[in-house]
Amino acid sequence: MALETPQSEAIWVYTGWERHALVGSEVRLSCSFFSWRWLSDDVTFSWSYKPDNARSSISIFHYAGGQPYVDNKGPFRDRLEFVGNPQKRDGSILIRNLDYNDNGTFTCDAKNPPDIVGRPSSVKLLVFDKVPVRAGVITGAIIGSVLGLVILIVAIYFLMRFLVARRVLNLSVR
Amino acid sequence: MLLLLLGIVLLHIAALVLLCVSTIVSTWVETSGSTADLWLNCSTTNGGSHCDPANTSEWIQAVQATMILSVVFSVISLFLFFCQLFTLQKGGRFFLTGIFQILASLFVMSGVTIYTVKNADWVPEAASYGYAYILAWVAFPIALISGFIYIILRKRE
Question: Which SMART domains match (chain A) (predicted)?
Answer without folding.
Answer: IG, IGv
